[in-house]
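dude i think i finally got it to work??
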Amino acid sequence: MPRAEAEAAATATAKVAATATAPRRRARFHELEVAEVRPLTADAIEVTFAVPDGLADDYSYLPGQYVALRARVPDGRGGETELRRSYSICRPPQLDGAGPGRISVAIKRDIGGRFSTWAHESLKAGDRIDVMSPEGRFTSSLPDPGEQREAHIVGIAAGSGITPMMAVAQSVLAGSETSRFTLIYTNRSTLDVMFLEELADLKDRYPARLALHHVLSREQRAAPLLSGRIDGEKLATMLDVLVPPEHVTEWFLCGPFELVELCRATLAERGVPGDRIRFELFVNDNQRIEGEAGRPVIVRPDEETYRIDFTLDGLSASVESPVSANESILNAALRIRSDVPFACAGGVCGTCRARLIDGKVQMTENYALEPDELERGYILTCQSHPRTPSVKVDYDV
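look at this
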């Protein structure tokens, strides 16, 4: 959603809709044991966690969802700091041993990324870290896979954007004997392709129903269309030749902002309805709220402040936030309650979602909330800043 549209929707006085919504599971952390760590590429690993029988319901998930990981990581000064990062689940539910009892994510090392570097260098089988129960709506809006007869799903992914696509593609193909999946997957070179063998195996298993197109930006391929970066001209040709939109049931887009926005805009120009496009953006490993304390803020006695009231797990709390600090609701709430939910802190995942009960806020970014949620007064607290003397939000609704 464009920033201006997000701001316009969020600065309106909060409205509490009377319409009922489906129950939403509250994301919580549990300590899980690492069952296996295996390399995918030179800079990507797959980490599998063992899920105890007693937590099987908490870790049930839909293809395309993610979990947040929380661990204490060296701070470079001889101490430790608590970090959390969100990663997509890369195995489909109840397939290939990834049903109840196991859950797997792929972690690609970011240049300078503190959490991903630590995971690559230190994480091993037998370790125990906190794993949040699955969240996210990068999931199909179609009926259950068994009812997706004749469905043609298209995924466009870049780099580690393949991670949720692995779960989605396998579920679509296994769920119906007539469904099809087309994957356009772009990387710099063959060596950078995550799940290369798994994709080849999937193609062997479903040769007629899986179309797999590898696009390499720094490696020449036989077909010019599959060589070089995906720009507007190349994408237009792909839509003409490989995946005409009129023959596609649903689209999944996952990658960096520029690619996802190019695809969304191009598909909209081709007449594809927005509710047929699911998208997920990369979040920089270096641009996060660190730990669970929030950014330090000093409240001076003579300073003008906003009053932020919030309810979480049935308990109400209040915190004062200096007007000059331009502090997010999430940051302020974390200063007095460490269990306030969040994962990416970038307006992408939706974990910090709450309903605005009273007051006005300005929401900087929003890539997680649907228009109907904005209408019902929901906000992303990591991106929302108070704009009235008092603001009240509820994480429990």
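The longest helix spans residues 162-175.
im so relieved honestly
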